[in-house]
Specification:
alpha/beta; 169 residues; five-stranded mixed beta sheet
Amino acid sequence: MHSEDVLYMQLALAAAQEAANLGEVPVGAVVVCAGAVVGTGYNRREVSQSPLGHAEIAAIDQACRHLGGWRLNDCTIYVTLEPCIMCMGAILQARIGRLVFSCLDAKAGAVESLYRLCEDRRLNHQLPATGGVLASEAAAMLAEFFQRLRERKRNSQKAERWPSPVEGA
């Protein structure tokens, strides 16, 4: 594991924490070009009420605006969760040079888990991908988020079933 990969993944984890603070699934992304962060994003699907509110999409958009073009050949994107099909499509379309991600996504991952889009020769762009960078930190953040979500759901269901003693009087 390269020390620069760890450094940039820590920035992606900080972005993921921003998503968690908003009640969003904690996924963060950072685009780096020539040693400089040119794009940062985090999940905002609930806030924006858009299925396009993924961390990678926001980071790629910001990087394109910062660099003044849509081709990000010399860039690396760091993501705290294995990208989904939509985000891999955006990564490929942007011609990003390298992908680094933290933990696998067994339900939607398009790099190793379900699909292998980075290396699909039928597509017009391929890129090297490195997984597992700070995977335990990213997985812990996701596990904690979903545990809290399940607890809130259980508590709200209990509240619906049993009125408080004051309400029943």
